[in-house]
Design goal:
Pathway: Cell wall biogenesis; peptidoglycan biosynthesis
Strand content: 15-25%
Number of domains: 2
Bound molecules: uridine-diphosphate-N-acetylglucosamine
EC number: 2.5.1.7
Low-confidence stretches: none
Number of strands: 22
Largest sheet: 4 strands, mixed
CATH superfamily of the largest domain: Enolpyruvate transferase domain
Enzyme class: transferase
CATH architecture of the largest domain: Alpha-beta prism
Structural class: alpha+beta
CATH topology of the largest domain: UDP-n-acetylglucosamine1-carboxyvinyl-transferase, Chain
Function: Cell wall formation. Adds enolpyruvyl to UDP-N-acetylglucosamine.
Family: Belongs to the EPSP synthase family. MurA subfamily.
């Protein structure tokens, strides 16, 4: 899977035009797939995108004896977890994906225990799990860390009030899933407010869970005794993929139409792009982006939703590196999410880092060369920079990009970009 020999080649300087279809959100579909563990019946998800992270989860469920049927063409994913067996803590698949720690909540709800290898660090930060475990403890789940594993156990999950020190997306989701079948009510205070949390609750409620307030800072989960078979479910559109294409129009001074947007979910990105000088007009689920106007430098601080998304920070940095003036970008969510700065520098960007702050002094042009996708969104930033750079940009380590974008070269090619994948 991690084919280090694959590269994406972008020849810059083309104007984009036409329409692009946005896929279903990676960060919605991953927790929703994991949540099927709570309910041993046949469950159908629609429009599931072919992403490496999705494939890893599908293979993990198969390893656990679940029936899984996935049609990559229609995106129909049928899962039945009736025969689910307990997790092998040494499973290679678990180690492959950071989001796999989300399996803990539903596994605890189903078996009352779960042992899993500690999620490793990653390029963008250390990603601790203390908030997940603190939340579990309040629900009567004891956990222990040792020898590279986390082991959690409980006789009974009992609802309680949980205050999160930081609105962690993963911790909110894990606790929500653990609490669905608990005795009594659980209240999560300072919960993450991301649209994907709201979507997970919408899915859980479609199976008979009783969750209120998801999408806001206070979530109440009334424990239920059992779940029912849900109707086929379609998760929300990917706001980060949409944002990536919005920036693509801006960085290439083009006009494009993006199909599959939710204005409310995109608000933080829309507001910043407006300030930069990108005009976006939304009608229903369609957005017309005019990126041809003069652009201004801006200051950005990443924050939990509804603040500016950290998952859009590398892409917007690529745009600002070509925008006249000085922009200041502060990353407050992950402590080490500036790996792409060095790569943008190779392309000719002028960016200095001081702790969590990047100072971007816009240059008039970038020039293509060999770069690496240091993580998923950094990889997207490399494509965007490559679309605008003079000459050819060769992006390596693109398995990161495949974790979260489906058919990315094809989508850009359909917009008129000169981009292709090579196997070397
Ligand atoms: C999710 C998203 C990811 C996005 C991130 C922030 C998925 C699959 N991934 O990741 O794309 O970039 O939200 O919007 O949905 N933290 C702790 N203790 C914990 C948990 C988290 O200190 O127990 C810290 C992390 O180190 C990080 C911050 O909280 O600095 C945000 O992490 P979190 O919101 O948990 O992100 P993820 O759920 O991992």
């Amino acid at each position: 899977m991690e084919d280090n020999m694959e590269k994406i080649i972008v020849k810059g300087g083309r104007e984009l035009h036409g329409e692009v279809d946005i896929s279903i959100a990676k960060n919605s579909v991953l927790p929703i797939i994991v949540a099927t563990i709570l309910n041993p019946t046949e469950i159908t998800l629609n429009k599931v995108p072919v992403l490496e992270d999705v494939i890893v989860l599908i293979n993990l469920l198969r390893e656990l004896q679940c029936e899984v049927d996935f049609s990559p063409i229609t995106g129909e994913l049928r899962i039945n977890t009736s025969n689910l067996k307990e997790l092998d803590p040494n499973s290679e698949l678990i180690r492959k994906m950071r989001a796999s720690f989300l399996i803990m909540g539903p596994m605890l709800a189903r078996f009352g225990r779960c042992k899993i290898s500690m999620p490793g660090g990653c390029n963008i930060g250390s990603r601790p799990i203390d908030l997940h475990l603190k939340g579990f403890k309040n629900l009567g789940i004891e956990s222990e860390i040792g020898y590279g594993y986390v082991e959690a156990k409980t006789e009974r999950i009992v609802g309680n009030r949980i205050y999160l020190d930081f609105p962690s997306v993963g911790a909110t989701e894990n606790i929500m899933m653990a609490a669905v079948l608990a005795d009594g009510d659980t209240i999560i205070e300072n919960a993450a407010e991301e649209p994907e949390i709201w979507d997970l609750a919408r899915f859980l409620n479609s199976m008979g869970a009783k969750i209120e307030g998801a999408g806001y800072g206070k979530i109440t989960i009334h424990g239920v005794n059992e779940l029912k078979r849900p109707k086929p479910f379609t998760p929300i559109f990917d706001r980060i993929e949409a944002g990536t294409f919005m920036v693509a129009a801006a960085i290439t001074n083009s006009k494009i139409t993006i199909n599959g947007v939710n204005e409310e979910h995109l608000m933080p990105t829309l507001e910043k792009l407006k300030e930069i000088g990108v005009q976006c007009t939304i009608t229903g689920e369609k957005m017309f982006v005019d990126g041809t106007l003069r652009k201004n430098s801006v200051d950005i601080k990443t924050m939990p939703y509804p603040g500016f998304p950290t998952d859009m920070q590398p892409q917007i940095m690529a745009l600002l590196s070509l925008t006249k003036g000085v922009s200041v970008i502060t990353e407050t969510v992950f402590e080490n999410r500036f790996m792409h700065v060095g790569e943008l520098g190779r392309l000719g960007a002028n960016i200095k880092i001081d702790g969590r702050v990047a100072i971007v002094d816009g240059v008039s042009n970038l020039t293509g060369c060999e770069v690496k996708a240091t993580d998923l969104r950094a990889g997207a930033a490399m494509i965007l920079a490559g679309l605008a750079a003079n000459g050819q940009t060769e992006i390596g380590d693109i398995y990161h990009i495949d974790r979260g974008y489906t058919n990315i070269e094809e989508k850009f090619r359909n917009l008129g970009a000169d981009i292709y994948r090579v196997h070397r």
